[in-house]
Write a structure and sequence with these properties.
Blueprint: E1 2-5, E2 17-20, E3 26-29, H1 35-38, E4 60-62, H2 68-71, H3 74-79, E5 85-88, H4 90-119, H5 135-142, E6 145-147, E7 154-157, E8 160-166, E9 174-182, E10 185-191, E11 214-218, H6 232-245, E12 250-254, H7 260-274, E13 281-285, H8 287-298, H9 305-314, E14 323-325, H10 329-334, E15 342-346, H11 356-363, E16 369-373, H12 382-387, E17 393-396, E18 399-402, E19 406-409, H13 419-426, E20 436-440, H14 444-456, E21 462-463, E22 470-472
Parallel strand pairs: 3-4, 4-5, 5-6, 10-11, 11-20, 12-15, 12-16, 13-14, 13-15, 16-19, 20-21
Antiparallel strand pairs: 1-2, 1-22, 2-3, 7-8, 8-9, 9-10, 17-18
């Protein structure tokens, strides 16, 4: 069998791995958007439209989880000729639907911008229209999603089986354990997807994977430790006290709509319910966050024991006094006039587009405002500048603004496992029996450091693939 690495190679996003069995059956593991290339001016010329392979020859897609850097190109796969099914967990299917439809809505606006620029005889070099799928392509794709339960061995071809093992990280996220036979020899391979962290709000801990011959693992935090040591509600409670109680201020939290916002709302609910905090008005400003929260509510049985018990005792994970979901852009902008202390949670987490931009713009110069960064931000995004101290003046939507707001950051809400979590994940594998470990989904220097760390504990058969590199396994 051949394994070709078509994405998330020596970078974080765009997960896409092709398995070609000896009987010419082809399985694509994840089909994600390359966010690094999307934010650059580089539009490579590919032999098959936007893919480096013929989509019509792919028999099956197996999806680890719903995040766009793992699922975002699936509608385009169908647009370019793929006719097979997508296997994933039920929760992944539900979250993928809202995420892909949201992307289609954004693409519609991009198409309009391209059309308008052509009418004005201007070229837009920042958008590759080949990748702009619409709602009809999303619906076509969703008709072919097949939900598979966790921990159930599923036969996808003759002598080919897949088991979805809980990975934490996001509702429905899975490690893929694949078993197959070729030339009367049984072989196994695991694709980690994104490895979650232990004791994360709502989610189960990542579960161990059986021994495999080959392991493909993410490395996002492969050279870093999470620094926050206290419980999420203790950390968030202290910040709220400083930002909204000690002074009559407002707390602005850039947060991804799917996963991160639910962890924030659950933690706030616990604070108000268990810690006796007087409920400060909380504005959740993202329609996508509201939709994904409802999916979490429908899948309580997949959450960790603490969340299930809290839900049973309080009849709700996320709804609490003074929680307001903002639907329209008009309602979102009106919050700027709210005079009482409040908390505003809005997307995106990197402060790249979305409603969070106008909240930051309206509050960055307010000395009674606090901006709390709760996750990773790509280099040169506004979120990255806030995280890394570029705060003398910031230009937002063409307006240069002084930074008078307090800027804080925590990593307790990051859904990725850190160095210790990744080492624990790899250590489920016997170093004498694992033939090869492939490192993906991380920055190159992080992968190199993680490779050295693995060598220190005895794992020497480690590869850092390049894009398009093929391995016989």
């Amino acid at each position: 069998m051949k394994l070709t690495f078509w994405g998330a190679t020596r970078q974080v996003s765009g997960s896409m791995f092709l398995l070609e069995f000896d009987d010419e059956y082809r399985v694509l593991i994840d089909c994600g958007t390359d966010l690094e290339r999307e934010n650059s001016q580089d539009t490579p010329k590919l032999e098959y439209g936007i893919f480096p392979f013929d989509p019509s020859l792919i028999n099956l897609v197996i999806l680890t989880h719903a995040h766009i850097d793992h699922s975002g190109q699936i509608p385009n796969l169908y647009k370019e000729g793929f006719e097979g099914q997508v296997l994933c967990t039920k929760a992944t299917m539900e979250l993928s639907e809202i995420l892909l439809l949201d992307s289609a809505s954004l693409n519609q606006r991009k198409f309009k911008a391209i059309h308008d620029s052509k009418k004005r005889s201007k070229k837009r070099k920042d958008v590759d229209s080949r990748e702009l799928f619409l709602e009809r392509q999303v619906k076509e794709a969703l008709e072919n999603f097949v939900p598979i339960p966790f921990d159930q061995k599923f036969k996808f071809k003759d002598d080919g089986f897949v088991t979805f093992i809980p990975a934490g990280h996001l509702l429905g996220a899975a490690h893929l354990y694949i078993e197959f036979s070729e030339n009367n020899e049984k072989k196994t391979i695991c694709f980690s997807g994104d490895v979650g962290r232990k004791n994360y709000p709502l989610l189960v801990d990542p579960q161990p994977v059986p021994q495999v011959d080959y392991l493909v693992t993410e490395t996002t935090y492969g050279d870093r430790h999470h620094t926050s040591e206290n419980k999420p509600e203790e950390i968030l409670g202290e910040i709220i006290k400083r930002a909204c109680i000690d002074i009559p201020g407002r707390l602005i939290i850039p947060s991804f709509s799917v996963g991160r916002t639910q962890a924030m709302l659950y933690t706030l609910n616990k604070l108000y319910t268990d810690k006796g905090f007087s409920p400060i008005k909380v504005f959740t400003d993202s329609p996508l966050a509201k939709a994904s929260t409802r999916i979490y509510e429908r899948n309580v049985r997949l959450l960790n024991k603490q969340a299930r018990e809290f839900n049973e005792e309080n009849d709700s994970l996320f709804d609490f006094e003074n929680l307001v979901y903002l639907e329209s852009n008009q309602a979102s902008k009106a919050v700027s006039n709210h005079s009482e202390p409040c908390i505003i949670i809005s997307a995106s987490g990197m402060v790249t587009g979305g409603r969070i931009e106008h909240h930051i713009q309206a509050n960055i110069s307010n000395p009674y405002a606090t901006i709390l960064m709760v996750g990773y931000a790509s280099e040169n995004t506004l979120g990255w500048k806030l995280l890394n101290g570029e705060r003398k003046d910031l230009t937002i939507n063409g307006q240069k603004l002084p930074v008078n707001a307090a800027i804080e950051k925590v990593d307790v809400f990051s859904g990725h496992g850190d160095l210790d979590d990744l080492i624990d994940f790899v250590k489920t594998q016997n170093k004498e029996k694992t033939k090869k470990i492939f490192l993906v989904h991380g920055e190159l220097h992080t992968m190199q450091n993680f490779k050295n760390t693995l060598a220190d504990v005895g794992y020497n058969q480690v590869e850092i693939p390049e894009k398009g590199q093929v391995f016989e396994i």
